[in-house]
Amino acid sequence: MENETKELAKTDTAIEIMAARVGICINRLIAEEDKPQNEQDAKLIERLNKELKILAKERERMYRGDKVVREKILNEYSTEVKEYFNKGETKELAKTDTAIEIMGAMRSTRITRLALEKNKPTELQDDKLITRLEKELDMLNAERHLMYKGDKVVREKILNEYSKEMTEYFKGKNSGR
To answer: 102 and 33 in one domain?
Structure first.
């Protein structure tokens, strides 16, 4: 039972990360001049939006116990991440932006899980944790604004936090988590 929960949590986070990365692509294309510059961009945005809808459907099937979908998501996720880092993509903004999206996605997932336990926080402690996580999400957004203004201290802080979060998340992976 515990392994099943961990497997679901891992796949759910994988979906969140993929969705966050697709979302980043859409936002970057739109932000170029508040609209797609040409037909090719418009088509790419349309395709990325479709991918987000597919991810949402796959999450539903995954929660109904579809192991094929679960495996597909985890395989896709590892391919996505390998491709991203193998390219040696070291543009600081892209890397930091992805870090913010991933941390935000992980926090959102935790908020959703807590809130869904009985459609509301069961104890004051849960309530406080949700409030704290929501504040952290607001802080991440504020830090993103500073980062885009060229604040290198904020950028470094985000990347340090990101590596800590991800190390913690994946450190148990090899020990069968």
So the answer is: no
Q: Return the number of other C-beta atoms located less than 10 Å from residue 11's C-beta.
A: 21
Rg (the chain; Cα; Å)? 17
Q: What predicted TM-score, i.e. pTM, was given to this entire model? A: 0.32
What's the rounded Cα separation, in Å, for the pair 32 and 12?
30
**DSSP states along 108-145:** HHHHHHHHHTTSS-SSHHHHHHHHHHHHHHHHHHHHHH
Q: Tell whether 117 and 169 lie within a shared domain.
A: yes
Query: What is the distance between the alpha carbons of residues 4 and 168, in angstroms, rounded to a whole number?
Result: 20
Q: Among 73, 96, 83, which residue's Cα sits nearest to residue 16?
A: 73
Alpha-carbon torsion, ordered 71, 60, 84, 43, to 10 deg: 130
Low-confidence ranges of the chain (pLDDT < 50): 1, 33-34, 36, 81-82, 84-92, 118-119, 121, 170, 173-177
Domain range for 32 is 1-89
CA 41 to chain CA mean position, Å: 23
Q: How far is CA 121 from CA 110, 117, 127, 132, 138, in A?
A: 12, 7, 6, 13, 20
Distance CA 68, CA 11 (A): 12
